[in-house]
Design a protein that fits this description.
The complex is a heterodimer. Chain A is 76% helix and 2% strand. Chain A is built from 14 helices and two strands. In chain A, strand 1 and strand 2 form a beta hairpin. The N and C termini of chain A lie close together (7 Å). Chain B is α+β, with helices and mostly antiparallel strands. Chain B contains 16 helices and 19 strands. In chain B, strands 1, 8, 9, 10, 11, 12, 13, 14, 15, 16 and 17 form an eleven-stranded mixed beta sheet that branches. A four-stranded antiparallel beta sheet of chain B has the order 4-5-7-6, with helices on one face. Chain B has a two-stranded antiparallel ribbon with strand order 2-3. In chain B, helix 9 runs antiparallel to helix 11 and helix 14 packs antiparallel against helix 15. The two termini of chain B are 36 Å apart. The chains are: A mainly alpha, B alpha+beta. At the A-B interface, helix 2, helix 3, helix 7 and helix 12 of A face helix 7 and helix 13 of B. Chain A: It is a multi-pass membrane protein.
Chain lengths: 323, 520
């Protein structure tokens, strides 16, 4: 068992190293940061001098080595664009992304489960068919388009909600929160729906098919035969058994909500990590790109590791086999 | 009685300082608040509201007194004497005087400063008294006052006390995030990349100022988001309005579209020294662009009016030379651009030995200038009509400049906005033979070279007599025009959008000067 955990942790570390290696090998193709850093009056010598100063003339593997060496000491370098430590910038931006992700995940899970159960129970009802059909929109339309359409309906035409930004935020220690002001909540609605829509439809469809599967099981028939009310059958017996795979999937999806916030954040000018990353690409801000990619991969690797370790506790075969 | 007067006074003050706020959005956040660290339009444009120079540009781009109330040449072209304005205070209350000018000169000309090139002609700066400073130049320099309109003055004591004696681009310092200028607006809050708020400096010395007391800038990268924010009334001004949305916004009674002409000329450049073509089906064959007839054929084959009508939706003007007519030193004698003439282009190609045309590579940015890729596509199809086939390769600007520096092109698209608003600027950067020691031709990617232009440039730079200077600029224009060193296409438009209650002035350098704006 201990060996198993050790092995999984080592594997996770290896994955991180490889992600970093791939990222650094690709930065060269993103472009050259120098032109954004020097003005119109720069000479070719200025370009070369700055390139050497930043170590961009070194092979990518050396650049990666330097990055790793600094990163293990908690130093992610200084942003080429802003001239500030990357770690400061990330701490400043993370609350916006995390708050958005949490609210979207909450919306996606709660509405997804409710609609999933509903469409499973009333599988032949007209409303269920309408929901199933419209849910296709959530899966098939690009996030960018959904965001713009929502902005035009609710901000431009109706004027109910702000079209961009985070509203007023309150600083609580290092954390800037939009949860404490009305404008913060209003600003959160459209981006949260846009970001959560895909996950919501996914969860809804998953719950529906799991539920239909469970409802065919023998114990449900027995429950019905015992004369239990439909409500008890559906919600106490069927739903509980449906949720096991749903929880696994949503756990993994939480990671992708954060990672895929990039598009939503850029449509709504939401001041989070995704927007930071998009801008970093535009200006070839390598320290920011590197830190962001590492952060996201650490997050995914951790989630996977936790899931794997949980299996050990759930599945006795893994424990006894001592894999 | 006294109590009543005081209350009345307080009331009067309260109403006169009634807050008028303006929110505006642009695509790019100024990357620093340090006026000497980076020469880029977003930085200098933003900081023009916060800091001031000895001279400044008016609504028509002509220079006018700012922190210097007057200036005159010293002796016979030995330099310039600036008489400083008295009674000017920085935002922190410190008094402005000659020490700040000398300090700002040292700071802006230091090795770490992007602005050091502006002071290359300077040999020495001397404080004469508290309100007089002499700038001595290595050679007579008639346009020196023009060339420092964006050189902003910082307070010596403040800069030293916060540890920002020299700019730091790579590491940043206090001046990267804070300011202490003399301008109409002081920095109230700075959140890099997110939001920057300015507030009115009530002790400002000047008078020409609108009613805005507080202004907030938000960078909005996504053009669709910016347009929606304007329509929803969440911002009062956006720059730019995407050209394709301008007509739609003009139909909307809630918003106004402001159109003008920028200082930027968009042009095509050629590989002028490469012996062979590098791209296309004729890769490796002799480079046809070495022949002036081929370059002229390209100029004739492109219908600029058609490009402006379709892609720019009538918002731009054709260009005849490397600067627009609004710039100092524009050559009236050469204001004609080659007319659109397919037959003429074909016969020129035939004369040059390419009756059946040829194939080559055209490099183009896709996120640098307004609709740049679409313009290149139009150029490609127009050239195809005279038999020359361009293989178009469009890319983001972050990879574009490195490609051009590596000479990876046969033909390329370039936009140039002269920092000094003078014709000498593009001649120095684009038409001079590249020479890194003399800092000449540093953006002349195609290595265009003409001995007479190289000879004339230093003479233009040091000629005090305006008529003689213009005659030399005319000669230079005549040379690069007849040699078709570049094919100037058009002058890029300025399209801004505001709420219907906003008035403002559009300056050709695309700077949004807050003191000229009002919200009614």
């Amino acid at each position: 068992m201990f060996n198993y955990i050790l092995k999984r942790v080592a594997q996770s570390g290896l994955v991180l190293l490889v992600v970093g290696l791939v990222a650094f090998s690709m930065f060269r193709f993103v472009g050259d940061p120098i032109d954004n850093m020097l003005g119109q009056e720069r000479t070719v010598e200025d370009v070369e001098r700055l390139r050497t100063e930043l170590g961009l003339d070194l092979p990518f593997i050396v650049q990666y080595g330097r990055f790793l060496g600094d990163a293990v000491q908690g130093n992610f370098g200084v942003s080429y664009r802003q001239g500030r430590p990357v770690s400061d910038i990330i701490i400043e931006r993370a609350p916006a992304t995390l708050e958005l992700a949490v609210v979207s995940a909450f919306l996606a899970i709660s509405i997804g489960i409710i609609l999933g159960v509903f469409t499973a129970i009333r599988r032949d009802g007209w409303l269920a068919s309408v929901i199933m059909t419209t849910s296709l929109i959530g899966v098939s339309l690009p996030t960018f388009l959904i965001g713009i359409v929502l902005i035009y309906i609710f901000s431009v035409d109706l004027g109910w909600l702000p079209s961009f930004g985070r509203g007023e935020v309150v600083q609580v220690g290092f954390w800037s929160t939009g949860f404490l002001t009305k404008s913060g909540w209003l600003a959160l609605i459209l981006p949260a729906i846009t970001l959560g829509l895909y996950q919501m439809t996914l969860i809804m469809r998953l719950v529906r098919s799991e539920m239909l599967e469970v409802l065919r099981q023998d114990y449900v028939r027995f429950a019905r035969a015992r004369g239990l009310s439909e409500r008890v059958v559906h919600f106490r017996h069927a739903l509980k058994n449906t949720l096991v795979p749903v929880i696994t999937v949503t756990g993994l999806q939480l990671g992708s909500i954060i990672a895929f916030a990039i598009i939503t954040e850029s449509v709504f000018q939401w001041p989070g990590l995704g927007l930071l990353f998009i801008n970093a690409i535009q200006f070839v801000d390598i320290p920011v790109m590197a830190a962001y990619l590492m952060l996201i991969s650490v997050m995914f690797v951790t989630i996977n590791l936790v899931v794997d370790l949980l299996y050990v506790f759930i599945d006795p075969r893994l424990r006894e086999g001592g894999l | 009685m006294k109590g009543i007067t005081l209350t009345a006074l307080a009331l009067a003050l309260a109403t006169s300082t009634h807050a008028t706020t303006l929110k505006w959005a642009g695509t790019t956040d100024p990357q620093t608040m340090d006026p000497h660290a980076v020469i880029s339009a977003p930085v200098l444009g933003f900081l023009n509201n916060v800091y001031e120079g000895l001279v400044r540009r008016g609504k028509d781009m002509a220079i006018e007194p700012a922190l210097a109330s007057s200036w005159e040449p010293i002796g016979n072209g030995e330099g310039w004497r600036f008489n400083l304005r008295k009674g000017v205070t920085f935002h922190d209350g410190a008094t402005f005087n000659a020490d700040d000018v000398v300090f700002s000169y040292l700071r802006a000309s230091s090795e770490a400063a992007d602005t050091k090139g502006w002071f290359a002609p300077i040999s020495e700066v001397k404080k004469v008294d508290d309100y007089t400073v002499d700038f001595f130049t290595k050679a007579p320099n008639p346009i020196f006052p023009d060339s420092i309109a964006n050189w902003m003055i910082m307070d010596e004591e403040w800069s030293k006390s916060v540890g920002a004696t020299v700019p730091s681009k790579e590491e940043g310092n206090a001046a990267t995030l804070q300011t202490n200028g003399t301008g109409v607006y002081a920095l109230k809050k700075r959140q890099p990349g997110l939001e920057t708020t300015l507030t009115r400096h009530n002790d400002w010395w000047g008078e020409d100022v609108g009613n805005i007391t507080e202004a907030t800038f938000t960078p909005i990268k996504n053009p669709a988001t910016a347009v929606a924010a304007l329509l929803a009334g969440n911002v009062d001004m956006i720059n730019p309005v995407p050209i394709q949305d301008a007509a739609r916004l003009e139909q909307n009674s809630q918003v106004k579209v402001h159109k003008g002409i920028e200082a930027r000329v968009i042009m095509l450049g050629f590989a002028q020294q490469a012996e062979v073509l590098k791209y296309g089906a004729d890769k490796g064959k002799a480079n046809p662009f070495l022949n002036v007839k081929v370059r002229e054929a390209v100029a004739k084959a492109i219908s600029v009016p058609a490009i402006l009508r379709t892609i720019m939706r009538g918002n731009a003007e054709p260009a005849s030379q490397l600067v627009s007519p609004a710039m100092r030193g524009f050559s009236e004698a050469y204001a004609e651009r080659p007319s659109f003439d397919v037959k003429g282009a074909k016969s020129l190609l035939a004369e040059a030995g390419y009756p059946n045309g040829f194939s080559f590579g055209l490099k183009c940015p896709n996120d640098r200038y307004l609709n740049d890729e679409a313009v290149c596509q139009a150029v490609t199809s127009m050239l195809a009509k005279v038999g020359i086939k361009a293989e178009l390769d469009a890319m983001p600007v972050r990879t574009y400049w490195p490609e051009l520096r590596k000479d990876n092109f046969d033909m390329y698209l370039l936009g140039w906005s002269p920092g000094t608003f003078d014709h000498e600027h593009p001649v120095r950067f684009l038409a001079s033979t590249p020479n890194s020691e003399k800092k000449l031709g540093s953006w002349n990617f195609g290595d265009y070279s003409n001995a007479r232009i190289d000879e004339l440039l230093p003479m233009i730079q040091s000629e005090i007599d305006d008529t003689k200077r213009q005659a030399m600029l005319d000669e230079v224009t005549g040379i690069y025009q007849s040699e078709h060193a570049y094919v100037p296409l058009y002058i890029q438009p300025l399209v801004w959008g505001t709420g219907k209650n906003v008035t403002l002035v559009q300056r050709p350098d695309n700077f949004f000067i807050l003191r000229w704006a009002s919200v009614n």
